[in-house]
Design goal:
Number of domains: 2
Distance between the termini: 47 Å
Mean pLDDT: 87
Shape: elongated
Strand order of the largest sheet: 6-9-7-8
Structural class: alpha+beta
Length: 222
């Protein structure tokens, strides 16, 4: 497969689209990579929504891969031209993915597919299947553990802060968010998986994370 975004089939799933990472050369499922393009000025631009015109250049979804691609001039080699790699490109990817998650969660809330608050989320998990469960990385550890226990096989995504989840849910802070099955939940799982490769929240001794002013307390109804 060429590096221009061609498809290649995995034996176990002939319909799975793969893309080749510029750094490793490994073909992986699209949800595990991030797309970049070169703009008319020759600058490398992230395309987390996979909508920008031009030849797609793909990297495994991690901060280290983006930084390595810049150091090894992987973008220039793939594009076969001189390109400019902006400083802080990995940070830009992280911001765009986080904003996309917040935006999608907001859409899910407004369409009635997402609810927040410990009790509401727990009630939904006891009665129906979740498409995704988001929990704030700076949320109190006990509440997060209890929700994970109720989530069963549903994907639990912990890549956003309580302030970011609150922004999506129309409140100051939120710790637990339930998203029903469907297209929005699928998009959130993919973007959350990608964002996890760009964010590093140091874990403290009690299992909470040093992100934001928290930890937020689930007993407040977050």
């Amino acid at each position: 497969m060429t590096g221009n975004g061609g498809q290649e089939d995995r034996p176990e799933d002939p319909k799975t689209p793969l893309r080749r990472c510029l750094v490793t050369g490994e073909s992986r499922p699209k949800p595990e990579l991030v797309r970049f393009v070169i703009d008319p000025e020759g600058t490398v631009v992230p395309d987390v929504a996979e909508e920008l015109p031009g030849r797609g250049l793909w990297l495994s979804a991690s901060r280290s891969m983006v930084e390595m691609a810049g150091k090894r001039k992987a973008f220039a080699r793939a594009a076969r031209r001189k390109v400019t790699v902006p400083e802080g490109l990995a940070d830009t990817v992280a911001r765009q993915l986080a904003a996309r998650c917040v935006e999608t969660l907001g859409l899910a809330r407004r369409s009635g597919q997402a609810v927040s608050g410990f009790e509401r989320v727990a009630e939904r998990l006891r009665g129906e299947r979740a498409g995704a469960v988001f929990q704030a990385v700076d949320g109190a550890v006990n509440g997060r553990r209890r929700i994970r226990g109720l989530a069963a096989d549903a994907p639990v995504v912990e890549v956003l802060t309580a302030a970011e989840l609150g922004q999506a849910m129309g409140r100051e802070r939120a710790v637990h968010v339930f998203v029903g099955p469907g297209r929005l939940a699928e998009r959130l799982r993919i973007d959350g998986q990608r964002l996890a490769g760009f964010r590093d929240f140091p874990e403290t001794a009690d299992g909470s994370f040093t992100a934001g002013p928290g930890p937020a307390d689930e007993r407040t109804g977050s």
